[in-house]
Structure to design on (221 residues):
């Protein structure tokens, strides 16, 4: 069964450093998402991406964040200058069709620890 | 503002003891309510989509129902492997509740 994959599973970085989190969505999916979950808190929407551009973003997704689909399979989230409060689990999700009715499939997550 | 509230926060059940989890929502024009299961340190795993009030979906020991204001996830005769956090969400930029952490003891 196809699934979303994410690398690395755990990333440790120093405050102020840039990190890139990688995701390979399910192959015939067209809509891609990033979410984060701070330990003990709810899963929060960051950004949605379709047709090589951002379709929606949350207040969390400020200028320090960017997303890219550099090739036909990868979808990346870059944090330019990490802060302590960026420490969280980051989940990538994808869905075949957009719109509110379509279930999203999540990857296993990347645990980001900022020291 | 769209909002999702889940209760209880935590639920401890004996194996075989059926119960229900609640998800109350406030959203302008519901276009799908989603249930997910999340195991510790893992990503949410899709369970159900409910589209309109009155709809029900079933999968093994789980049954999800939907009204105009809330959704219930009924767990019948749970087993220890059903222990997880159950999340509900609305909208395509999924707005999640805080989840119900379910523990089932043998």
């Amino acid at each position: 069964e196809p699934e979303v994959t994410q690398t690395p599973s755990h990333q440790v970085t120093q405050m102020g450093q840039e990190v890139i989190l990688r995701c390979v969505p399910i192959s015939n999916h067209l809509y891609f998402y990033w979410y984060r979950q701070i330990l003990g808190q709810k899963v929060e929407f960051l950004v949605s991406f379709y047709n090589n551009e951002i379709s929606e973003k949350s207040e969390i997704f400020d200028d320090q964040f960017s997303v890219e689909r550099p090739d036909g399979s990868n979808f990346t989230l870059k944090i330019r200058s990490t802060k302590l409060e960026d420490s969280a689990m980051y989940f990538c999700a994808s869905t075949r069709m957009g719109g509110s009715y379509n279930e999203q499939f999540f990857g296993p997550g990347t645990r980001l620890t900022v020291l | 503002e769209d909002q999702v509230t889940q209760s209880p926060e935590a639920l401890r059940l004996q194996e075989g003891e059926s119960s229900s989890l609640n998800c109350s929502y406030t959203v302008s024009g519901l276009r799908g309510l989603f249930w997910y299961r999340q195991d510790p340190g893992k990503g949410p795993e899709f369970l159900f989509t409910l589209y309109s009030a009155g709809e029900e979906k079933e999968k093994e020991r789980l049954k999800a129902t939907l009204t105009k204001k809330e959704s219930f996830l009924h767990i019948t005769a749970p087993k220890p492997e059903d222990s997880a956090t159950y999340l509900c969400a609305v909208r395509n930029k999924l707005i999640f509740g805080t989840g119900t952490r379910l523990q089932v003891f043998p």
Observations:
- The first strand of chain A starts at residue 5 and ends at 7.
- Chain A touches chain B at residues 4, 33, 35, 41-45, 48, 56, 58, 89, 91, 93, 98-109, 111 (CB under 8 Å).
- Chain A has a mean pLDDT of 93.
